[in-house]
Specification:
Elements: H1 4-10, H2 38-46, E1 64-66, E2 77-79, H3 85-96, H4 105-116, E3 123-127, E4 132-141, E5 146-151, E6 157-158, H5 166-175, E7 179-181, E8 185-187, H6 196-212, H7 227-243, H8 249-275, H9 282-313, H10 315-324, E9 343-347, H11 353-362, E10 371-375, H12 378-383, E11 390-394, E12 396-400, E13 404-406, E14 411-415, E15 421-425, E16 433-435, E17 439-443, E18 446-448, E19 457-459, E20 463-467, E21 470-472, E22 478-480, E23 485-489, E24 492-494, E25 499-503, E26 508-512, E27 515-517, E28 521-526, E29 537-541, E30 544-546, E31 551-557, H13 560-563, H14 575-581, E32 593-595, E33 604-609, H15 618-640, H16 646-656, E34 660-662, E35 665-667, E36 672-678
Parallel strand pairs: 9-10, 9-11, 11-14, 12-15, 13-16, 14-17, 15-18, 16-19, 17-20, 18-21, 19-22, 20-23, 21-24, 22-25, 23-26, 24-27, 25-28, 26-29, 27-30, 28-31, 29-34, 30-35, 31-36
Antiparallel strand pairs: 1-2, 3-4, 3-8, 4-5, 4-6, 5-7, 32-33, 33-36
Helix pairs in contact: 3-7, 8-9, 15-16
Length: about 675
């Protein structure tokens, strides 16, 4: 899966010298053990809810100007908002924050502004939520992030709610001692470029306090850490990932919900703390005791919220959250409609008489009294479904601004050929289709993704039947999660930068008559953690797997099992082992395979088949799964008791054997038909 940084490089953005700064890692915390798997930590966490002078070489983006759309003719302002991630990164790391602690942030910012800002002689638009007015700066007070201003000779003022005269604004400024926040000033263009540095510095401070700084950062009990590394960098990454649609919608919503809740809790905590008095009276003492208990509860809640936010701000943890959905609000199944009836949802951009007649003849049963609902947006139609409903999507090109999350057992079908019913994903951060219902049937549709960061379809749980569909992928194709089921028939899948199909342990996958091509990897079988999970049960019949960059079929395994062997042997040629451990499979003919042995510096095992082998790598995949099952049996025997309990052993073996792999064709795959990657 390509990273955000890689995609930014590919997009042609100008990179500054500071782009290769340190990447924040995963910091240990009292909430999680260093050796504990990340996913387990996240589950536990979310289970109950979640020096520079003016002559220095300072990085500055080429300044452009823009005209504000106003009724009053204000001067143009220096445009500084379109800074890239790397420009902001370098500014905060090298010039503003450095290795400052949280308690030193304000002092470092004031020192930076003292060296960069022009103290007087420039004009700016003072803009806030109420009004905009042109002012001239006469002094800068960096310690309080304020500027001393007065009105320009030409009075330019605009407000939709509070129209003020020059005299009224003068009185208002006098009441404020002519001091206004630096963040509310937008530097006006003077044509000389003399104040570009000033405009850029104010933009950095404005962005910092709007998107990076949190009110509670300064009150952190643990103040002995690098603020840039722990807080600034991950929050900056998150901000740009959100701007570039690299974060799922639900994750963004949950982050902002937690941020708002944390802000409210912090305000309540500060208010409670300030109300505790030092009086010695008995009444005041009792009140203080109650306040301290309530304050302690608020403090504990605040710490929990801060930790959840820290997890979501960390890029690595955020990937796990995005992949597994920990801590995110999950869609609940509605179940059957209260009335008991089932509804047919028809989606069409334009309903004509001829189309309606065709639907009545072919899809809508006129002999039975059923309810039909008509929609123009497929997302709205699917979200309106109850268990047992049917969604018919008529021919057309639908741009989907969102995603399909299916929690009820429904049927979705395209009315026409797949190439005529096109669903194109807008945005990058969400999986296009996510299935978690008992059974979902999808047919005759074409799904299209562009510049995505998530897969095109993910089966999280339950069974999904995919028939006659075209899947034009971008990052990852179809993902079959642990214990889920997928039946994919007569589908065309291509274009994935990762695997066309990812199969996780303990899942069940039936592939029949599919064309899987032009991906980085065809089918990726994630067979890790063999002691904890069963191997996936896969049936492959009459599939065409071709033109992949790496292998047609790739299996991921732990290298530790092979490191314990005294002699590296090819398990696929070990007929005696197959006869002993694989039941009826021990009698099948095994093709002659040339296996590249695994050395300490080699972590891939390639299977090369003779040209005379008609079945290509069908047997290779089958026998590898059989071998894996045999190894797992050796690990499970001590838990089963005596080795003589053959009935239990045979039962376990039968549950783990690869179901069927016949009639498949593997062609023009870059590294070969089948390979094993060790970790």
């Amino acid at each position: 899966m390509p990273t955000a940084d890689e995609d930014r490089q590919e997009s042609g953005e100008q990179l500054t010298a500071g782009r290769d700064g340190p990447v924040s890692g995963v910091e240990n915390s009292e909430h999680g053990s260093k050796n504990e798997p990340i996913s387990h930590q996240l589950t536990d966490c979310f289970k109950d809810e979640e020096e520079i002078g003016k002559d220095h070489d300072y990085p500055i983006k080429e300044m452009t100007s823009k005209k504000h759309v106003r009724t009053v003719e204000f001067p143009e302002v220096i445009e500084t908002t379109q800074l890239s991630y790397y420009e902001r990164y370098k500014a905060y790391q090298d010039y503003i924050l450095g290795d400052t602690k949280p308690s030193e942030v304000k002092d470092f910012i004031a020192e930076y502004l003292d060296k960069v800002l022009e103290p007087y002689g420039w004009q700016a638009i003072w803009s806030n939520d109420v009004f905009e007015v042109l002012v001239e700066i006469t002094d800068v007070v960096t310690s309080s992030l304020q500027a001393k201003v007065h009105l320009t000779e030409l009075f330019l003022y605009e407000s939709e709610t509070y129209p003020l005269s020059r005299e009224a604004m003068e009185s208002f400024l006098e009441a404020k001692e002519h001091l206004v926040p630096l963040q509310d000033l937008y530097v006006a263009v003077d044509g000389s470029g003399e104040f570009d540095q000033t405009a850029l510095a104010i933009e950095h401070i404005r962005f910092f306090y709007e998107n990076i700084w949190r009110k509670w950062d300064e009150d952190d009990d643990d103040d002995d850490y690098d603020y840039f590394v722990r807080c600034c960098e991950p929050r900056l990454k998150l901000h740009y990932d959100i701007l570039e649609d690299r974060v799922p919608t639900d994750l963004i919503a949950e982050y902002h919900r937690l941020l708002s809740k944390c802000d409210e809790t912090y305000k309540d905590f500060i208010k409670m703390r300030d109300n505790i008095t030092t009086s010695d009276s008995e009444t005041e003492s009792e009140i203080n005791n109650v306040s301290m208990v309530e304050g302690l509860k608020l403090y504990e809640e605040l710490e929990k919220l801060k930790y959840k936010l820290q997890i979501m701000e960390n890029p690595l943890y955020r990937y796990v959250l995005r992949r597994d959905g920990y801590g995110l609000p999950s869609k609940q199944a509605k179940g059957p409609r209260p009335s008991g009836e089932k509804v047919v949802h028809v989606v069409s951009k334009c309903m004509t008489i001829g189309l309606m007649q065709s639907l009545l003849k072919e899809k809508l049963n006129a002999d039975h009294v059923t309810q039909e609902q008509f929609h123009s947006d497929p997302v709205v139609a699917i979200n309106a479904c109850y268990e047992g409903d049917v969604v018919i999507i008529c021919a057309g090109h639908y741009c989907v601004n969102g995603y399909f999350r299916i929690a009820d057992s429904i049927q979705i079908e395209g009315y026409g050929l797949p190439d005529d019913v096109v669903l194109e994903k807008e945005g990058k951060g969400d999986t296009f289709v996510e299935c978690m219902a008992s059974i979902v049937k999808i047919s005759n549709l074409k799904f299209v993704q562009h510049d995505a960061t998530e897969g095109i379809l993910c089966v999280r749980q339950g069974q999904t039947v995919l028939e006659g569909c075209v899947l034009q992928c971008d990052t990852t194709g179809v993902v079959l999660r642990t214990s889920a089921e997928l039946c994919m028939k007569n589908c065309d899948l291509y274009g994935a930068k990762g695997a066309g199909l990812e199969i996780y342990p303990s899942s069940t996958c039936v592939l029949n008559g599919n064309d899987i091509h032009h991906c980085k990897e065809g089918i990726l079988i994630k067979n890790f953690m063999e002691e904890l999970y069963d191997v996936p049960k896969i049936t492959m019949m009459n599939n065409l797997v071709h033109n992949h960059e790496n292998y047609g079929v790739t299996m991921i395994k732990f290298a530790v099992h092979f490191g314990k062997k005294k002699h590296m042997e090819n398990p696929l040629n070990d007929e005696h082992s197959l006869d002993t451990n694989s039941g009826s499979h021990g009698t099948q003919d095994i093709p002659h395979l040339l296996v590249e042995h695994c050395s300490p510096n080699k972590y891939e095992q390639t299977v090369i088949l003779n040209n005379s082998d008609i079945a290509e790598c069908d047997e290779a995949v089958t026998n590898e799964l059989i071998s894996t099952s045999a190894k797992k049996m050796k690990l499970s025997r001590p838990r089963l008791g005596e080795a003589g309990d053959t009935e239990i052993n045979d039962k376990l073996i039968s549950q783990e054997i690869f179901s069927s792999i016949v009639g498949n064709h593997f062609r023009k795959n870059g590294k070969g038909s089948f390979g094993i990657v060790y970790y």
